[in-house]
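Quick one, probably user error.
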């Protein structure tokens, strides 16, 4: 099954906690703090796998998590870093931030990318020793890793895209000019997913051609299969617009030609400016010469190059391939989308963002800022508790409580910590 779009959640590993430890060794008095640092959390790494052609692997598994860092140890030993998690994607995958829709990275020009960074490990208590605080009984907690919800969108890396109504001969042309073997049958929507083929020209040059499933009127708004696969034309340097001029299905080739161009323009206005070569297919079985002439005059008047071909009998195909090869030498390389993503800062919060609520004589305080501070406090140690009290006072938390009417003896509840307020 061809899958070209998926939404996944990635979470890098949490950094390990620093440890509280004191050196103990025979004949060494007052060895001092020797708590080691926590290990770094694992990263989420994205690698390009040239053997992958779809995003099928992401259809059922939607969450990817890297390993957490190990806590520090005694004797100044750091914890082991968390294991990175590697996600494999096909070349041409565009990764977007789900919330904003901005492009994080286009996996076309690079082979590996760090999508989410693991949290740093916390410091052990040896880092907090000073001449006046020689036995610190607290350490720093590791930071959380980055977590993102992202969209993966595969945009084929093809030089040339074949577009046109269903059953006009796109798959037949691809099978003739390359070694691709797309399904070919005499009914609409035979092609259900894009097919790629490498075309080798007589002068030794080669290019990649993509057969895009049939586009119909309203495709840019979701009709038919066209909307699902129009994204694969985004990168194409050149478009070959195939039109059935045989009249076998009773359609007007001029109307078909204009309808497809209209849908391309609606989907992406830049596609209307993309170089385009028109191939009038099935000319060998054309039933109305006047209709063919009117179509040819219309195409030439519109400023496009026109080739009369029959993919089934190979008529005019060589000339078309030579013209495509010559034009590709004048065009810029396949488009690589530039990133416009600004990474979000780590969620740390500020004292002003704290939520304070009152229930009779109980005052609850919640918020990222106070939660992060609590991770670095050893509440069994008097010195560490005083540090926590100073942080609340200096940040103006007590002032906010007093302004809201807290009284002496009321209870302050901060997550799993409760203590009595005294003036």
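Nope, works fine. Designed sequence:
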């Amino acid at each position: 099954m061809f899958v070209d779009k998926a939404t996944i959640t990635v979470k890098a590993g949490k950094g390990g906690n620093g440890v509280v430890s004191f050196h103990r060794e025979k004949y060494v008095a007052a060895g001092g703090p020797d708590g080691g640092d926590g290990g770094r959390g694992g990263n989420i790494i994205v690698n390009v796998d040239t053997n992958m052609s779809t995003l099928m692997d992401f259809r059922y598994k939607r969450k990817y998590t890297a390993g957490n860092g190990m806590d520090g140890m005694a004797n100044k030993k750091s914890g082991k870093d968390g294991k990175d998690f590697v996600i494999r994607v096909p070349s041409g995958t565009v990764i977007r931030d789900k919330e904003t829709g901005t492009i994080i990275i286009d996996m076309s020009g690079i082979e590996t990318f760090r999508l989410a960074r693991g949290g740093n490990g916390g410091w052990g208590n040896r880092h907090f020793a000073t001449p006046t605080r020689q036995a610190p009984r607290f350490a720093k907690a590791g930071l959380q890793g980055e977590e993102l919800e992202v969209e993966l969108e595969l945009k084929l890396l093809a030089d040339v895209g074949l577009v046109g109504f269903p059953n006009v001969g796109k798959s037949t042309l691809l099978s003739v000019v390359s070694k691709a073997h797309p399904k070919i049958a005499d009914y609409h929507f035979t092609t259900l997913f894009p097919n790629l083929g490498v075309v080798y020209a007589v002068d030794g040059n080669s290019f990649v051609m993509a057969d895009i499933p049939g586009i119909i009127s309203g495709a840019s708004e979701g009709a038919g299969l066209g909307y699902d696969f129009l994204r694969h034309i985004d990168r194409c340097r050149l478009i070959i617009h195939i039109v059935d001029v045989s009249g076998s299905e009773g359609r007007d080739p001029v109307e078909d030609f204009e309808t497809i161009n209209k849908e391309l323009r609606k989907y992406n206005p830049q596609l209307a400016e993309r170089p385009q070569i028109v191939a009038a297919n099935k000319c060998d079985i054309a039933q109305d010469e006047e209709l063919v002439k009117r179509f040819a005059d219309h195409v030439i008047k519109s400023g496009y190059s026109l080739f009369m071909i029959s993919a089934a009998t190979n008529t005019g195909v060589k000339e078309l391939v030579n013209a495509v090869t010559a034009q590709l030498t004048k065009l810029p390389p396949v488009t690589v989308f530039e990133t416009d993503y600004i990474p979000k800062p780590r969620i740390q919060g500020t004292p002003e963002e704290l939520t304070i609520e009152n229930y009779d004589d109980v005052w609850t305080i919640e918020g990222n800022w106070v939660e992060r501070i609590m991770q670095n406090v050893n509440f069994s140690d008097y010195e560490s508790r005083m540090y926590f009290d100073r942080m609340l006072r200096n940040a103006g938390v007590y002032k906010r409580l007093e302004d809201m009417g807290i009284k002496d003896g009321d209870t302050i509840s901060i997550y799993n910590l409760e203590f009595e307020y005294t003036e």
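DSSP finds eight helices and 18 strands in the chain.
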